[in-house]
């Protein structure tokens, strides 16, 4: 059976947050802004046709996006010991940029830590522990090269995010894996890890994004890319814990990351597995 | 069998052109530009860590991208007769923007018109005809709601594009479906059509992108989205004519289009169909 | 005596605030951002030379700037009863844009309202009244076509502006002329008025920039341009109340405003007037 | 007599080219683009008022602008021997940026080399020589610290600039001082030099802006700022050769240059000097 037929009837979940001016994002990055430049009626062609289009200004690390390995360095070195200065120029990164990330189409495991604690969303500043991950992974195989997502339920706050709801966690922090949990994840040798918060990792209250040790562990030490600001609420609710993930960030040559619209594809020609029930 | 298992061993083809400053694009849209803003070493944290990131300025219709239905109007009206002025504001389009495009994961048919003519790439300014499409579609089923790509071989010129190679066709035109071919395509009621050139449609020599009747037929009259500037060379060479396509443009709320990194997934758990041989 | 000789020994005061990322500005406008794009060493020419340069993203109404008459409309009409829709397009404004503002080199009067109240800076949300202006104007001639600045002392807060110091007045408001004071100013038929706050006019606490009646009075009803976010502290301290002003906003064709670096030139070949003592 | 009175009746010449999308500029810099973001009618307040504003994306070296000393380095060093790397960061230049340029209000001398040759504009690729400058300077005093402009007549081509008229000189070159003429100018120790072309200096045919030795001489070796892309046609026609110049580039902190709207002020309370006749 051809693949396209195998996927007929599959359920496709959009794991990206909608991108719009004012959406929550890290203050370290240029704010997203989309402006209509030409509007219908500005320039009407003789036959009555007209086109509209926009200009977009943005950072690469806004909305749902993938961190390239080149995003973080330690003591001047990128992953694999490459000196950052040698591959960095006005054109971005000659190596380890997001264009070096091969699109991922494959198995993904969701570790639902919110469910472990019986909550819809983990509290601000909560540090996800090794024990949390092990309990969430019970009955699930974590294979080398697969994708692993850590569910915190944090994306449920997106729509209400504002000055009242501190999505970025600038004041109250954000839930996510701490250093030990990150090492546990890295030891499984995944292709990529991801989550719902802006920084993926544990942000303690009042600390902001000042130090990001989990980024160092994943990107520099382990060569594992990170997907951030994912929309997982619907996936968490679906009960699926093992599914097909499509992760294809924009191929921006030399960039330290890129926006992406990840898709989870649930179901199969022979029905859902127990884990997807 | 779960879907992710069905896809193990599948061949994934990246159908997006790499995005970089100076790449070919329509002069009607803001030029793509990615600049490193923060470099490694600019701000080294106490522990020796450092992060780099960029600022991006771009149009939505640059690189490989999907046109939203709101992109074109005729006599002031968008698809379905909606007055453009009613849904257009500083926030973009309240309806028919690219965020209204549901990600597509499904069957795609490739009509290889270059192969019909026995050439690697159709000549500049060549108008793809109904006869061309019918010959390219021989033996292939075109179903309502599927994706249809028209192969011209034009993406083979991308890497060499420059002032010498006129990728956009400003002077010599670009190959693509003319009005009759567009009506033939629209009559099959596809979900989306796509191709390798910047405008998808036939651009006669010396005319540039001044009038784009095929855009009107597809976007306004038929409600069919268009994918442009695709990288199809590898797909054309693969011989696959029927395959799984993933098309998930960035969800930019209210935009008239968005960049995308489409993927073709070839193969299947039960082997390739004859058409993919 | 040639003019350049007449100005030798004159004291030139820079009335512009320095422009940098994160400076206070109205949330209604795109934030100012300057990023080095090419750095020294990125591209070293054979002889050892290298150039650096930047990319700038900004609104026109950030930092010290002049409002064009096209900036505000009332009931769809611009100054002089021109329908806004008729002169507005993707290229900006065909009339009444900032390029229609002829550079001003001439007499300027400073009405120091802070001094009237014996304070370094007026309190947040203070409404400058007609009585304030009349007291500040005592002994000063206000001539048709001259420039008039209203001193509030607010620019003294610029350097400390931050989340703690609410320069924009989003919460506590900002001092400035109310409606009556604006009518008093407009009746003197100045060429341009200006001040130190972001909106020039009185912003009551808790109101933000939601309604700006003084903008309507000045720009739409009276055809008087407004200079905002000026740095007047040094000028206020100088004691000069009548001086030469140079006001030459960037000639951005069709824009609703433009940044400017205004200069006050104090002194003269035959000595300071009493008012400049 | 106060200064403002001394300037009454003076003639003010705008020496800036109008800034608009598509204007001639160096390909080394981000293209200027101004887009209306909010239009009248997008958001009408209860009382019927509405505001329009824009977003601007640009390089600092576009339109009429001043080069900061930090713009060019030689062997890694800026003017005065400062290593570029020490003062360069994500915030631009901590020293020698355009914010270090004190606004200039003073005497300016115009050396009209086009007049020396009896032409309206020097031909493309013409190298201005020491002899040209000496003949143009006949009868004019060049004092240390003054501004010196070199007239080539090139700004007469601005309005017609297009693919036909090669304003930037990419193919045919542009007229301007060569290395010897630059050393002659630098030896007079001016505060600033300026001209009508994009690069100020001699650009030989077919060379583009690949090497710019005059920039090195002025910015690095001599500490003399450069004004480029000036509009001098009206000034050349006026016959004024010695006049008051106002040069106040935008105070963009850390930038390698900034746009400016220079003004020439002609005349004086005691009449024009012979040189202004």
How does this structure look, described?
Four copies of one chain form a homotetramer. Helices cover 16% and strands 25% of the residues of chain A. Mean pLDDT of chain A is 94; it is low at 269-277. Chain A has a nine-stranded mixed sheet. Chain A has a two-stranded antiparallel sheet with strand order 2-4. A two-stranded antiparallel ribbon of chain A has the order 7-8. The first copy, chain A, has 277 residues and is of the alpha/beta class. Chain A starts with a helix and ends in an 11-residue tail after the last strand. Chain A has a single domain (3-18, 60-267), classed as 3-Layer(bba) Sandwich (Glucose Oxidase, domain 1), CATH 3.50.30.50. In chain A, helix 5 runs parallel beside helix 6. Chains in contact: A-B, A-C, A-D, B-C, B-D, C-D. At the C-D interface, helix 1, strand 2, strand 3, strand 4 and strand 6 of C face helix 1, strand 2, strand 3, strand 4 and strand 6 of D. Strand 3 of chain A pairs antiparallel with strand 6 (72-74) of chain B.
Helix content of chain A: 10-25%
Structural class of the secondary elements of chain A? alpha/beta
Terminal CA distance of chain A = 24 Å
Strand order of the largest sheet of chain A: 1-17-15-9-11-13-14-5-16
Radius of gyration of chain A, in Å, reads: 20 Å
**Count of domains of chain A:** 1
User: Can you tell me the CATH architecture of chain A?
Assistant: 3-Layer(bba) Sandwich
The total of beta strands of chain A comes to 17
How do the helices and strands follow one another from N- to C-terminus of chain A? Answer: HEEEEEEHEEEHEHEEHEHEHEEE
Fraction of residues in β-strands of chain A: 15-25%
Unreliable residue runs of chain A = 269-277
Largest sheet of chain A: 9 strands, mixed
> What is the CATH superfamily label of chain A?
Putative cyclase
Number of H/I helices of chain A: 7
- Mean pLDDT of chain A, to the nearest integer, reads 94
GO molecular function, one term (chains A, B, C, D): arylformamidase activity
Organism (chains A, B, C, D): Nonomuraea montanisoli
Pfam family, one (chains A, B, C, D): Cyclase
InterPro entries (chains A, B, C, D): KFase/CYL, KFase_sf
